[in-house]
């Protein structure tokens, strides 16, 4: 046993605690004492003979969401976990902030059904607690996603707000305008043909109609009012409060309106997904039926990224620029 432990114990000098050498009643108090000695960015690696997951929840409950938990080894005989105290500016990052910093991690949120766009103001701990999801598993997958060097996401968070606004209009707005009329047409057709045997389909058509109406006015507001204002704001910077900016006024109110409309459309798409049992195709589904469900799923995927770019990157950058101008 001792030989095996020596093989898996760190060979480099680090802040490590072999918990197996402690009496049971001293284990958690000793770990807590060592954690409390850490400064921001410093870590403690613990070595144990079983999964120390209960320690995660105790540490979270007594110290708060101020640490990262990373499994370096996971059994079957030995577990090694690195616990890193976050810096003062890192604690409690929200889903939206995490996705804005590294869009690769959004795939983990999607896997577990964690809303990083409309519901992006929750922390990972809060979002997992609401859904009863094992937060240690989610955080472990987030760490792995951040190490995936084969994926090179676009650096949305580094873009100028004016450029990002143009990108959203030319990519995601254009996608909606091109595909939503076809989705509405197929939703109507499929409801007429299959509605008698699948009573959820007329309801799906009504919900798609609601989305079409909501987004039509929404896109017009962004393209005719909000986005031009953001582009002027980004171009002029904090140089002066020009008459053009002052005539529009602070963007806080229209941004809140856009966020509310994002949430409404997101909830409508969730309702469609529930009605269709996650777009499950019945045996009598025709080609149009299959195409409708595929288009709805792709539309939802695009909208998640679209809303994320606005709620978590574009809008915060806009409000930050306004703050520089003293609005």
Task: Note the topology.
Elements (H helix, E strand, L loop, with lengths): L1 H7 L7 E3 L5 H13 L6 E6 L4 H11 L3 E8 L4 E7 L9 H7 L4 H6 L12 H8 L3 H12 L14 H34 L5 H37 L6 H6 L3 H24 L11 H39 L2
Parallel strand pairs: 1-2
Antiparallel strand pairs: 2-4, 3-4
Helix pairs in contact: 4-12, 8-9, 8-12, 9-11, 11-12
What does the model show?
- This protein has helices at residues 2-8, 24-36, 53-63, 95-101, 106-111, 124-131, 135-146, 161-194, 200-236, 243-248, 252-275, 287-325, and strands at 16-18, 43-48, 67-74, 79-85.
- The protein is of the alpha+beta class and 327 residues long.
- It folds into three domains: 2-85, Translation Initiation Factor IF3, CATH 3.30.110; 95-146, no CATH class; 156-325, no CATH class.
- The chain has a four-stranded mixed β-sheet.
- Helix 2 (24-36) links the parallel strand 1 and strand 2.
- Helix 11 packs antiparallel against helix 12.
């Amino acid at each position: 046993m001792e030989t095996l432990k020596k093989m898996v114990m760190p060979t480099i000098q680090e802040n490590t605690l072999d918990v197996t050498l402690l009496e049971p009643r001293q284990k958690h108090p000793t770990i807590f004492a060592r954690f409390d000695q850490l400064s921001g960015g410093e870590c403690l690696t613990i070595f144990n003979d079983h999964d120390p997951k209960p320690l995660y929840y105790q540490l979270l409950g007594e110290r708060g969401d101020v640490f990262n938990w990373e499994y370096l080894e996971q059994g079957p005989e030995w577990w090694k976990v690195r616990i890193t105290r976050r810096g003062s500016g890192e604690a409690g990052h929200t889903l939206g902030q995490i996705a804005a910093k590294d869009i690769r991690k959004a795939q983990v949120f999607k896997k577990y059904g964690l809303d990083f766009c409309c519901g992006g103001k929750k922390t990972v701990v809060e979002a997992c607690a609401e859904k009863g999801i094992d937060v240690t598993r989610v955080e472990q997958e987030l760490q792995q996603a951040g190490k995936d060097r084969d994926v090179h996401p676009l650096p949305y968070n580094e873009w100028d707000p004016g450029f990002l606004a143009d990108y959203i209009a030319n990519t995601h707005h254009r996608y909606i305008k091109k595909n939503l009329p076809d989705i509405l047409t197929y939703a109507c057709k499929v409801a007429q043909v299959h509605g008698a045997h699948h009573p959820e389909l007329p309801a799906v058509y009504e919900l798609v109609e609601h989305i079409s109406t909501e987004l039509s006015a929404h896109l017009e507001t962004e393209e005719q009012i909000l986005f031009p204002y953001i582009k002027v704001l980004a171009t002029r910077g904090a140089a002066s409060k020009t008459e053009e900016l002052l005539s529009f006024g602070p963007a806080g109110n229209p941004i809140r309106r856009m966020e509310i409309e994002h949430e409404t459309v997101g909830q409508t798409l969730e309702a469609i997904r529930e009605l269709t049992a996650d777009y499950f195709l019945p045996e009598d589904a025709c080609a149009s039926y299959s195409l409708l469900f595929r288009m709805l799923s792709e539309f939802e995927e695009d909208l998640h990224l679209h809303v994320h770019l606005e709620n978590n990157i574009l809008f915060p950058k806009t409000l930050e620029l306004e703050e520089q101008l003293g609005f």
